[in-house]
Structure formats: structure tokens, C-alpha cells
């Protein structure tokens, strides 16, 4: 059975936001995260290796791979064809709404204000990324939005760490959080997969 975006968010609880600088890192990184209990992986298109990394990581047993940093319509179909099963964008525009519909790729669009939440909801999106979560007001902002806009569910991302993730996950309108803290650049460069698995285990334990 196909998982909905909400199913994926709820099953994840913590989604690592990944930027691959070296394509050789993709498979061992995905294996290390899955070994630590972190299975939903957001692979961003911030580097030239994003699509190839999605293709490689989607083949790793247990990994559920999405594409992150979608900013252009043309990227949707390419990411879907590479194996992404969901997409994340820092924002939302008419072109991105159209691309999501055409590609069939479930999209988690970014919002930062109540008006952006309303616009996204009007376009049919009920699962949203609060980005950048901490500069946007963090937990206080999420709790304040839950009153007037109770029917949207968030993945806050941006400025969250292992020390603050639990506070975000305790918000009633939060299904999962995203962050880059599980994939420190120095650990990737050193091929320190054991450290990545340890970070994943600590994040998975937040559940
Ligand atoms: C994102 O794109 O969601 C953020 O860059 C991740 O934010 P962080 O690096 O502060 O965790």
C-alpha cells in the first residue's frame, strides 16, 4: 500500500536533510541512517549529485527517499524518476503547485507566515514545512498557529537540533522535524558511518 505524505511524516518523526558532496557517500550514508532507525531521508538538490544520490539511496533496503530543496518545476519529474517518493520545497509558488500536480510527487511545501499557510491550504496542501522554523518563531509560532489553523500538520525545519527536537515533536500540529544535524559534514568527509548511526539512534529514540 502506498504511504501518504502524512504517513511518511508520522513514521519518520525525524527527517535528515542531506546534501551529498561526494556521490560515493550516498549508499553508506543511507545504510548508516537506516541502521540507526532513521529511514525517511530527504536528499536535497543543493549539490550537483542530488539526483544520482536519490537513485542510489532509493535502492538501499529500508530507505524511504524524498527530494529536498525543490525550487524549480522541472526538478519534480526528474526526482520522481530517480526514485523520490515525496518532495520538499522551502516555499510554494504557482509553478511548483502545477509541477507537483503534473508529476504526482507528494509535496511538502515551505511556509513561514499565517498567510502562506492559508495560501498553501487553498492550493490543497495540509502538510507543510515550517521553514526556517527557529527564525520563524519555533515552538511558540507553531502553538500560536494551532489555534486559528488547526487542520494543518507541520514538519518544522531550520535551526533544530537533537536538544530541541523533542520540544517541537511535542507540539500537537507537528508530525516530524527535519534537520541537518544527523549528517555533519566532517563525519561524511571522514566516512565515519558509526557516528552517523549513533546520531540516527539518538534521533530515533526521540519517538
Ligand atoms: C532545510 O533545508 O530544511 C534546512 O537547511 C535544514 O536546516 P538546519 O541545517 O538548520 O537543520
From TrEMBL:
PANTHER family: 2-DEHYDRO-3-DEOXY-6-PHOSPHOGALACTONATE ALDOLASE-RELATED, 2-KETO-3-DEOXY-6-PHOSPHOGLUCONATE ALDOLASE. The keyword Methyltransferase does not apply. It catalyses: 2-dehydro-3-deoxy-6-phospho-D-gluconate = D-glyceraldehyde 3-phosphate + pyruvate. This is 2-dehydro-3-deoxy-phosphogluconate aldolase. SUPFAM superfamilies: Aldolase (SSF51569). Homotrimer. It is an enzyme of class 4 (lyase). Pathway: Carbohydrate acid metabolism; 2-dehydro-3-deoxy-D-gluconate degradation; D-glyceraldehyde 3-phosphate and pyruvate from 2-dehydro-3-deoxy-D-gluconate: step 2/2.
